[in-house]
């Protein structure tokens, strides 16, 4: 097992600088424009694809890192540039994670590259779980997949909501109920290939933050996918369902396997926002003068900055630890993945709010970036498991009690 270390190796430092330079020179100068436009920043995605940052090969390199730190390091730097654009670049990785977490190696190699396409033909992916009546309660999904044995096809019907890249993606990974009576244990994941008939985009949402990231409903109307698009294969699914019907452990929920692995990366994105806000407000406090001296000389301001930096460092420790545990196969014995996402997400909200307070009126207007960072931060206490759900997962893990 790879030892845990806070010292990045040469390859990780190279990636960190490469991504930071892209965030500083390409993403950050364009952040305000794409926030105002509320559109997918295709020119930036195209540039990222040309230099290899938006590619299956780069994400595969991150996943292959035995320490697990390359992906959170890259995610933090991208989000430091802008969280909305970062999510536009990283959103396909959630669809990829759904394939990697539930599919076979052969399915990963078939569909993984199609989540990104090529620099000449860019593609995107989406992971479809949440529904209008099933957000935190994943066990109540109503989207249904029924097997047509005569044609060896699965027929999918239902509506998904709050989906990153939803409807516009080339590859959709959807979690659906195959045996509703079994709740979350009766669910499976499917790949919907590009151009699948019956799959369409519903409402596109106008959001408070991360506006450069496309979020929409996805409608499945008698969508038919070939049998080989069932992630993991039918034999594995049948065995899982049989165990569930006998009251035995069935191997976990299809959606939860993806979320468990992605939460530290989501925490890293929140960390990037917090770091950006901290750095900006620190420099402002050194330059801004009131009552004849820089405001940082006042304890009221200096102590805020001290607490902001402390929470950022603690968040990074949690994110890196959870990322390392996931990569090395170490059990999350205290829900460390949820801890990292919970603490980093709430830190981003706290730090950006404090940044606004330090800037005063300037922090509240769009001429300065801190109000955008605050708007962007809030989603990190909501998506991929709300803060309340993270606390529930942690409490159950540390107590062994089925807390409701």
Task: Describe the fold and architecture.
There is one protein chain. By secondary structure, the chain is of the alpha+beta class. It has 3 domains: 106 residues, Acyl-CoA dehydrogenase/oxidase, N-terminal domain (Butyryl-Coa Dehydrogenase, subunit A, domain 1, Orthogonal Bundle), CATH 1.10.540.10; 121 residues, Butyryl-CoA Dehydrogenase, subunit A, domain 2; 146 residues, Butyryl-CoA Dehydrogenase, subunit A, domain 3 (Up-down Bundle), CATH 1.20.140.10. Helix content is 51%, strand content 14%. It is built from 12 helices and 9 strands. A 4-stranded antiparallel beta sheet has the order 2-3-7-6, covered by helices on one side. A 3-stranded mixed beta sheet has the order 1-4-5. The chain has a two-stranded antiparallel sheet with strand order 8-9. A hairpin with a 4-residue loop joins strand 2 and strand 3. Helix 4 runs antiparallel to helix 5 and helix 8 runs parallel beside helix 10. The longest helix is centred in the C-terminal third of the chain and has 34 residues. The model has no long low-confidence stretch (mean pLDDT 94).
Which structural traits does this protein have?
Butyryl-Coa Dehydrogenase, subunit A, domain 1; 3-stranded mixed beta sheet; Butyryl-CoA Dehydrogenase, subunit A, domain 3; Butyryl-CoA Dehydrogenase, subunit A, domain 2; alpha+beta; 404 residues; 51% helix; 9 strands
Short description:
The protein has 404 residues and is an alpha+beta fold.
